[in-house]
Amino acid sequence: MDKVVIDGRMGEGGGQILRSSLTLAMLYGKEIEINHIRGKRPKPGLMRQHLTCVKAAQAICGAKVDGAELGSSRLTFKPGPIKGGDYKFDVGSAGSTALVFQTVLLPLLQAEGASTVEFGGGTHNPFAPPLTEIERSFLPLLRDMGAKIEVETERWGFMPAGGGKWRIRIQPEALQPIERLERGELNHSRLTAYCYNIPGKVGEREVQAYLSLREHPVHESRQRKPEAGCAGNLLAVDLQFDGHRICLSELGQVRRRAELVSKLLSQKVKTYLDSNAVLDEHLTDQMMLPMLVAGGGRFSISEWSLHAQTNAEVIELFTSRKIECDGAIMWMV
User: Which residue numbers are catalytic?
Assistant: First the structure.
């Protein structure tokens, strides 16, 4: 078994290096040693959600692990065979369950048997992709590549308490490369204010403020009350194009005015619409490892961030494959 040594300070120096390394270690059966974990973050080392990623990865492949403790800046991880089955992973805080999900998803798609995985913790926080975007932006692309994944959400988990609960069912299937260079015309735009245990007028103000900005056509607007483990707020826009769909969102936070939430989301949507790209900045990151597993693919992208560049460098450390970008198109060579 080859051993790959990773410096956690490379590139953007955050948790993505750890998560991608764990996924790649399992996919390629390679032992890894990660030093200076999250070395460029104000609080470096393993935090609760990162530790849950490590333990989740260990559980599905029986890995031998050293350094799996809170605050640890060094980790060794020697994977075994990936095993499908029934799993339950709880972050124990409002830390992101979506990031734990992304760590184990691709390996479980390669397992010999089906899997059901239950997640507990945060589903919507400002430091990770919200579950809403995972369901409506990321998973549709994976299903287009052949993935068989079902999601069942029991309740959302906002910061600071978390308390979210959701599960996935995965049927192993080989991924196929896809090409998405054009998204086509915008057919429908839906604005939704989600509010749980906060005054309903917050959602009303967000909707009215967003509509007053008139940055793009909104064909439908509504308010919804999701089941959640604690009070929280999310403003989301679903965009349906001829050949693509995407969800963009903005979290409401304590002492953040509803009008500011609307303005921030409107700016995010305008940036995406002005780009003519299929993948936004975050989807660009998220689609790299599926491209690798599928053996190729081409996507138009809105931005090649330092985060994306770092992820591409981690992939190259493990494989002979490179993800290239000319500023507008991302592909694998």
Answer: 307
